[in-house]
Amino acid sequence: MNQAIRNAWIAAIAMFVLIFGALSYVQVVGADELEANAWNKRTLLQNYCNDRGALIVGGAPVAESVPAAESCKFQRTYNQPEPYAGITGYFSRSFGVTGLEKTMNEELAGSSDQQFLDRVGQLFLGNQPKGASVELTLDPEIQKLAFDLIPDGQRGSIVVTNPKTGAILAMVSKPSYDPNLIATQDPVAEAANFAELNKVPGINLNQNVSGPTGELLAPGSVFKIIDTAAALSSGKYNKDSVLPNPAEMSFPGIQYTLPNYAGGNCYTRDTATFAFALQQSCNTPFASIALDLGQAAIADQAGKFGFGKDFGDQLKLDSATSFFPTEELDDASLAQSSIGQRDVRATPLQINQMTAAIANGGVQMQPNLIKAVRSPDLRPISEPKPQALLTSTTPEIARQINEWMVSVVSEGIGRGAAVPGVRVAGKTGTAELGDGLNNSWFTGFAPANDPQVAVTIVMEGVDITTGAKLTSPNAKKIFEAVLNK
Questions:
Q1: Where are the beta strands (DSSP E) in 128-246?
Q2: CB 391: neighbour CB atoms within 10 A?
Q3: Which residue in 87, 68, 60 sits closest to 169, CA to CA?
Q4: Which of 150, 231, 371, 454 would staple 445 via disulfide (CB 3.0–4.6 Å)?
Q5: Of 221, 281, 322, 472, which one is the catalytic site residue?
Q6: Pair 167, 197: CB distance under 8 Å
Q7: What local confidence, expressed as pLDDT, does residue 121 receive?
Q8: Among this protein's residues, is 221 annotated catalytic?
């Protein structure tokens, strides 16, 4: 009998320890993880009707809480919704939170540690809880221009940054959507709108990333900037090196041949300088560099430009990680990868970061969307300062690539980006998709001697002619708009 009682006590104590441990984990160790879980709607429902802080661009709110006459005292509203949807995300009772609404939720809801005294003050004064406002680095005129430069019905993304600070001046993609359709307090309409928007190719409302930060695309020939940096870093090449430039490159044991780019003047020379190869975007010189240096050297240089890494702490948006293949490649696969094809993938923001590193003397800054966080009485809670993210290459190599990128615009196939009286540096790219369609890229910066703006444009699934019209010439319009402000 005593043994039975003893066993019962042991079982009871064990159960108590188990329950106490589980509660301790939920309340202490796992609290943050559980609160951030997309399936946990408790925090959202607690704050859904509160006066949430605004997301502000150029002094005007692009997302704000306004008084409502419905079941909630406040309704989340999005102004100029489509140009900003990929950044603001949405705040939905049924479908959760995305974009900055999610990543800046504590500040917008007024629940961050820095806002403790504000909450105490509101409590004593009997005021309703009110969140902090978040001022963004975006320029409203450049954001609108960039959004309008992508034709309706065309899939594409544009990123505009200050390469010296990492501040994002514009970041847009199409197709876009109206977050108001999902933020409605009508649950029937909310569900119907969500289902309808999810049918649109290019819109994935469950994916908490926008096109520029989340869509992984073959970068095509803009990747040749990385090949060039790897070559110069190796010590085996210099600015006067002469590169093989055959019309096509064959590989032992297989029938495949890698053709040179047919859209420029690559066919006019059997050998090429770096300047000519970049100006005309020739394929075979860069493939030969990759085969000479080896996969590890190209992969290492890609990593220094940010492939395989995140964007740091200042972006405040979920993002996808760009990548260069890590599995061992045969010669043909490495040649294809060296020109940004095959399994190489990059986000538009990553290509902009790569470009900005060249513009900034080899140093890549953290991309930043947040200019300031302010309490309801406009007191600054935080004002992020520019921070370096990576050292991608040396100042000397960056200067040399800068010079060659200038020649791409002044003498090569990037002439459409030229701005009168301004030295513009750029690189075009075409990633083949089959059936005559491509992802068409332009990435560059200006003025080349004192870079103030870096622009990256990609148009998806276009033919050569359409891509040429929608990339370099549109980059010119953005350069002019930023530099004339």
A1: 133-136, 156-161, 168-174, 243-244
A2: 13
A3: 87
A4: 454
A5: 221
A6: no
A7: 53
A8: yes
